[in-house]
Amino acid sequence: MIDILAKRYAKALFFLGQEDGLYRAYGSELDSFSQALKATGEVGLALTSPFYAREQRRQALLAILEKSSLSLIVANFVKLLFDKGRLNLLEPIKKAYLELCDEREGLMRGTLTTAAPLTDSQVSAIKGALNIMSGAKVELEVIIDDTIIGGLVARLGDLVVDSSIKTQLKRLSQKLAGAL
What's the pLDDT at 7? Predict the structure, then answer.
């Protein structure tokens, strides 16, 4: 249910951003505001807490928005979230919004897990192969995880390419166990 609501709100803001061509800027603002609320911790919690009077929380939010550098569209969007009791969905809305931005630009984000660091040319070659496989521009976050022993694991949306030695050993073990 949360994902459905988050996507609806994200689509509404994204539609406005597409109309005026500022969809990526709105995504950056939403991300910055979300990070700022997370960084303050107590302030973010107080804005959504029923222990404080609604009007006090609204005044606090308005004071924060007044000092922020948010555009009028994003500030009004945040106010709408508060008024509808959905400010607690800011993080999933931001995530859904940024996914819409990536989709609009033909960009897919994924992870590349390796046991040892790769050179830039190796990462570029893997990106190139994933670009061809997915038909989209690929951005990868490289993660070093020595528990995979060797090889790599690439995750891009629903696509998983797992050529890690750990997985190969696991498959071999299952085959041997099945042969007995």
Answer: 96
Pick from 173, 138, 179, 142: which is nearest to 157 by CA? 138
pLDDT at residue 140 in the model = 96
| Confidence category of residue 35, pLDDT binned at 50, 70, 90 | very high
Q: What span, in angstroms and rounded, lies between the C-alpha atoms of 145 and 164?
A: 11
DSSP 8-state secondary structure symbol assigned to residue 148 = G
Between helix 90-104 and helix 72-83 the angle, nearest 10°, is 140
The total domain count for the chain is 2
- pTM (predicted TM-score): 0.77
Instruction: Note whether 90 and 130 are same-domain residues.
Output: no
Instruction: Tell me if 118 sits within 8 A of 142, measured CB to CB.
Output: yes
